[in-house]
Amino acid sequence: MYELVVSINIGIFILLALSLNIITGYSGQPTLGHAAFFGIGAYTGAVITTKMGLSFWLALPLSGIVAGVIGALLGLVSQRVRNDFLAVTTIGINFVTVAVFQYVPFFGASFGMSVKKPVFMGHDMTNLEFFVLIAVLIVLVCLLCVRIQNSWIGLALGGIRNNEAAAAAMGIDVNRFRVIAFTIGTTIAGVAGSVYAHYMTFIYSSDFAFVTSISILSMVVVGGMGTIRGAVAGAVILGVLPELFRFVSDYRMLIYGGLLTLMMRFQPEGLLGNNSLLWNGISSVLSRAGISPGSRETKEGAADQ
Amino acid sequence: MDMILQQVINGIVIGSVYALTAMGAALVYGILRILDLANAAAYAMGAYAGLFLYAATGNVMLAFAGALLLTALFGLVIQKYLYVPVLDRPPIVPLIASIGLFIFVQDLLRLIAGPHIREFQVRIPFGEIKTESLTVNSTWIFIIALAAVLLLFLWYILTRTRIGLAWRATAQDLETAKAMGVNVNRVVALNYLLGYSFAAAAGIMVSMLYNSVYPTMGDVPAYKMLAIIVLGGLGNPVGTVAAALLIGLVETLVAGYVGFFLPRDAIAFVVLIIVLLLKPEGLMSKTVK
Fold it and tell me: What pLDDT score was predicted for residue B287?
């Protein structure tokens, strides 16, 4: 089923885009190595089920935890430099992680690693069941994102993103909140990696290269940094485009690169981000029709009345 | 002993190429506080321009001059139409724009010249230096000499000319420099002009050194040059050269003597992490807090 396969792929990228959005969108940390944590999750999952023979349902949270712990450690180290240099350390993390997978024989080196298909209710998990699993994960992550946005962490992160010095002056522990965002984001990427590994049943180090990180970043940026709808829309748009137009997949990096540059030059808010042209248009149409577009201010206003 | 000397010379050659690679991005960071990854695109672009010009003319110096001019022009255009308009945005905006440009140029090179590795064999018009146990390849001599000339030229511009004075003033405080009548736009333009041509020179040198040109050759320098900027104290030109030589030497010596379980390109990153843990402001950070 072609549509199902495409949907599963897009679903995995929605998870990745949402998780990167927590790091880059909410807390304003430009990371260029998100695929590394995707890969750490994938290889951890593969080792747990295929080498150690444990259950996929145990591997799923464990892969998230391993990716999250490594993410937290690297996040702590990266906090010691200015924010924009996080980009550097994360590119480096991506290259080193891929190098480890590619050169260490335990991880299959350049041959890649085969992964056992997980068993669900006594049979091998089907694509449809994978699709349902990913859909459930997306809903959970979206709920988590809403929770973060509306919590104290979300407010603190927003403050840090808008003005780091002012946030620090208000007594917000900038580094702590950054590391928290980094840990949550990398944990989700790790879970997504584990799902990916068991769905594909074969993983190569090159699946998690710098190019993948750039794809995820493009999705978040094109959709609109800092919003759930933006991350989801970006992943869907950039996931569907190569399927609709053959030439898109031949010139993928050219198009992604061009999109990133043009977006930043003319519409840094992304297609559906707050204050973007398109979203302002949609919001005004919706409010004229009497429907709240779902921003917090209007919701609170409605509650007051 | 001679073996060590040989390795040290090798390290200095690599280090001076790194210095040229990182200098452009370091200078930009020095005044604008933005990270310019597209500098690594200029590196690959310069290598291809050099390759084609050398094939057409057969003259190394002409190939260098043409490639440097072409990439400098590219730098001028993108700073004017891409970076300057987004300067008042948060730093993540120009950063992502530069990443996009970097990937765009890389893929464009792939489409124009093909994904395969091209050979770049250059005849240097003088011979190698050879003693009983030590050989200094003529390509090495050429690279060290040219790198030294370019870096001295930069030093002359930054310390002995009016525009250099303007650059240093801008590096100290952009707003104050503006208020004192410094034409910051000209300083930025000069920055990109020099930075991109240096990156192009480094690209050609690396292609000559390893006899290969390929579209993604900018990937490793993209993060390595940023590691060098951090080590060199975030935009300090002298620190950048020192950090580049240090990384070049450490890489060569570790790969040659100690051995490392990862490819040698990962060493710079490990050095970076260690330095960040011990001295997060970089090795030489007098000019920048």
Answer: 44
Residues A156 and A96 in one domain: yes
Best of B80, B84, B107 to mutate (most A CBs within 10 Å, chain A): B107
Looking at residue A71, which CATH number applies to its domain? 1.10.3470
CB contact, 8 Å: B112 with chain A?
no
Residues A179 and A295 in one domain: no
Q: Which residues of B touch A205 (CB under 8 A)?
A: none
B21: containing domain = 2-278
Is 0.85 exceeded by the ipTM? no
Over residues A6-40, the pLDDT tens digits come to: 899 999 999 999 999 998 888 878 888 899 999 99
- Whether A233 and A285 map to the same domain: the answer is no
Given CB atoms, is A257 within the 8 Å cutoff of chain B?
yes
Split into its structural domains, chain B has a count of 1
Report the number of distinct structural domains present in chain A. 2
Assess contact for A172 and A62: CB atoms under 8 A: no
B33 contacts in A (CB within 8 Å)?
84
Q: A60-69: b or e for each residue (b if 16 or more CB lie within 10 Å)?
A: bebbbebbbe
The CA–CA distances, whole Å, from B134 to A35, A88, B8, B249 equal: 44, 37, 12, 18
Task: Give domain status of residue B108, yes or no.
Answer: yes
Residue type, B129: I
Spatial separation of the C-alpha atoms in residues A31 and A16, rounded to whole Å: 13
The boundaries of the domain holding residue A293 are: 275-305
Which of B99, B261, B288 would best serve as a mutation to test chain A binding (most A beta carbons within 10 A)? B99
Enter the pTM of the model.
0.82
Nearest 5°: CA angle at A139, between A177 and A6?
Answer: 115
Tokens (6 digits) for B214: 């390929």
Do A55 and A106 fall within a single domain?
yes
Q: pLDDT confidence of A173, banded at 50, 70, 90?
A: confident
DSSP assignment of A11-34, as one string? HHHHHHHHHHIIIIIIT----S-H
